[in-house]
Amino acid sequence: MSKVKHGLKEGFTTGSSATAAAMSALRVRLGGTAPKQIEIPLPVKGTLNIPVERVEKTDGCVRGVVIKDGGDDPDATHGKEIHALVEIIAGDELQVNISGGKGVGTVTLPGLPVAVGEPAINPVPRKQIIAGILKELSESDPDFCGTVKVCIEVPEGKIIAENTMNARLGILGGISILGTQGIVRPFSHASWKASIAQALNVSRASGLDNIVFTTGRRSERFYMEHHAGTSEINMVQAADFFKFSMQQATLKKFSKVRWSLFIGKLVKHAMGFPYTHAKDWAINFPQLSDWCAELGISTELTKEIRTANTARQVFDMIPVENKKEYLKMLTGKARANAIAFSGNKELDVEYFLFDFDGSLIHQPGD
User: Fold this and answer.
1) Catalyses which reaction (predicted)?
2) Based on CB atoms within 10 Å of each CB, which residue in 149, 167, 248, 366 is the most buried?
3) Closest among 135, 140, 126 to 27, alpha carbons compared
4) Which domain covers residue 168, as residue numbers?
């Protein structure tokens, strides 16, 4: 794979892995030699050479195996085997049938780009696999007639899926075959944004009109511990994507949004940061100090706040008698920014703030 800026290595998607596995299996099924690498079509434009781990003949079928490579942006499928079992059925017309086998999840909830009951092979990878099969036929057997059956399998898919959000999205029994570009570009935000949008689609298709955004697994867990009746479908891990998540909430026509987070993210929401990762958006402590001064906090303390290192440090510095007012001020500013980002003045937004031990230290009405 190629290098990108800062010397980071690009990878390829599960869709590209499945395409390479299917093409290599078909080549051997048509009498060719098992390739060490194969050139696959990319979903948008261009091609990509992908290493082939092995090709095996079995019971009239041929199995191609590719090792998924996420480059320097590895995910749960990085380093795992993606299989394609290829079978040819005689016939008078050229057809390509794609199915999912072991380790590929089945869609059980509406709102995803794949219909309920179908294997979780997204439309773009499905088209990519078909394009790859047609490319291989054009080069190996231009006069071919019949049906090429391709079954995608991921032997460890069921285990891998336990480390993903698939079950919550209604994808059961394995992973999804994904990839809109075919290439994984290191540290791209596109995949996380896509997962947020997809989770909102599932929630909306399930009839929900409210959503709970969290900044990670802990803030999600703490919220659910305090709100035991909340369905997992209501919960969406938005991470650092504050503005994008609010825009999507409006786009998907939600009427109420709750945020579950910790003090650092709350301060960044209050400051109106569209993206809250520490690497890109640092807290403005002089501004936070000025806000504290407006609450009547002593000049001596506000001077210390100007040179603080973390939002948690500032929170611990705030006198007990001022803490409630301090948090009310932060959540008020955060709520105003959330509504502004959403573009919907009628959207109902609430904030729930947790301490690191899971205790709820601020909620609506405090």
Assistant:
1) Co-precorrin-5B + S-adenosyl-L-methionine = Co-precorrin-6A + S-adenosyl-L-homocysteine
2) 248
3) 140
4) 5-184
